[in-house]
Amino acid sequence: MTIVSLPGSSGYLDVSNRKVVSYFSNPYVLGLTFVAGIGGLLFGYDTGVISGALLYIKDEFPEVNQSSFLQETIVSMALVGAMIGAAAGGWINDSYGRKRATLSADVVFILGSLVMAAALDPYILILGRLLVGLGVGVASVTAPVYIAEASPSEIRGGLVSTNVLMITGGQFLSYLVNLAFTEIPGTWRWMLGVAGVPAAIQFVLMLFLPESPRWLYMKKDKAEAVAVLAKIYDPYRLEEEIDQLATALEEERLRKQAVSYLDVFRKKEIRLAFFAGAGLQAFQQFAGINTVMYYSPTIVQMAGFKSNQLALLLSLIVALTNAMGTIVGIYLIDHFGRKKLALTSLSGVIVSLILLAVAFILESSTSNSINVGAYGWIAVIGLALYIAFFAPGMGPVPWTVNSEIYPESYRGMCGGMSATVNWISNLIVAQSFLSLAEAVGAGATFLILAGIAVMAFVFVVVFVPETKGLSFEEMERIWKEKAWGSGSGKDALLEARS
């Protein structure tokens, strides 16, 4: 093979034998991606379905209708479960593998769906939400890592973003289901209960898929790992990947001790990577995305549209915009780059949140019904614009970056910790949005979110490196370089990627 180093490129390139890799070039990898991505579908469905179901839960349980706290708890209990599931998910992934983690998440999710559908009071419903959250939390850690470890570096961003497409697709599906069951007795029970169907489908399909090849090589069976890698790479590239894995395994042996959670904070290069990854996850939530997705029907009603069905229909349009924007992101993330895409996305998010804030402030200050209707439509347009800007960038970028920036021995652990940060942030936003909107008004609430989005923009500029096209090993060198300075003679490459 002829291997050359290209300054300012993604590192080393086999110019004589390496085939051009595209998103659709390997059906096997694409199949792995979509089956693993059903975990993202579960994540998205649960996020979206509760927003519509809540409208009918309030009709059946008067105590829920009379208490914003109970409404927020029904939404947020799934996030508590997801927080716990994500925290445990990193350990499960590292100890038992990505495949077993996925199967266990499916079982818990199915159980939670059945409990929700059969709930006789709000408190049993809350228990079901907790169980579903546990499954979603484990899946949110597992799916991006499984996909990233089975992906060629050239298209890793697009493939991991497919998991985010499944999330947004799940949200869109949830609104379709919500509309489909609006006239059927037991409306919200059907909405929540059918969530178990995709989990059951993933469980069956996952039984026929392999474990992550990188996990197999590092933890279990090198021969089996090579057999899986041979289905992903051509023979020349396969040799290169095996060499990189052998080097990584040797480094693991030289450490002579198991990694711990404290090491994430003790080792400067891991600490810097985790700070960047966890910061992205936190800002994804504090910029308001799941406020929009959880409460979009409620926001639409706050904007003056009082019909439950009309609110759900308009929210369906928002969810469709989210899914379409993610498809755009799949293309852009490997061509435009993670960092540039996030910054462009945040710029649009800031403008959209300001538009939303202005619409609600003007709506609350007028009694003219014609003006109220106009401001309501401005709010709906603001919601759609928010999603159109958020979905291609800040939707997939945090998950993609977190699936690729950590060394092998820390990937599950740090991925779980950063996902936990995402769910904690999600919980804070979901638990506080309605109360905050009641206290200071919806307009002021969206202005606060716009201010947070400005902070997110600055954070990405300062702390997040560009990771487009880099191998896992190249990214590990970036963090060592940032932590300890140059000395390897690769400064130009490292600086070009940051």
From TrEMBL:
Coarse class of the protein's main subcellular location: membrane
UniProt-listed GO biological process terms: myo-inositol transport; polyol transmembrane transport
Record has Manganese as a keyword: no
PROSITE patterns linked to this entry: MFS, SUGAR_TRANSPORT_1, SUGAR_TRANSPORT_2
Membrane topology annotation: Multi-pass membrane protein
Location relative to the cell: Membrane
Stretches that traverse the bilayer: 28-57, 69-91, 103-120, 126-147, 159-181, 187-209, 310-334, 341-362, 374-391, 440-464
UniProt entry tagged with the keyword Ribosomal protein: no
MF terms in GO: transmembrane transporter activity
Keyword vocabulary terms for this entry: Membrane, Transmembrane, Transmembrane helix, Transport
GO cellular component term, pick one: membrane
Domain Major facilitator superfamily (MFS) profile: 32-468
PANTHER family, A to Z: PROTON MYO-INOSITOL COTRANSPORTER
Family, per entry: Belongs to the major facilitator superfamily. Phosphate:H(+) symporter (TC 2.A.1.9) family. Belongs to the major facilitator superfamily. Sugar transporter (TC 2.A.1.1) family.
NCBIfam families listed in its UniProt record: SP (TIGR00879)
Full protein name: Inositol transporter 1
Lineage, top ranks: Eukaryota, Viridiplantae, Streptophyta, Embryophyta, Tracheophyta
Gene behind the chain: INT1
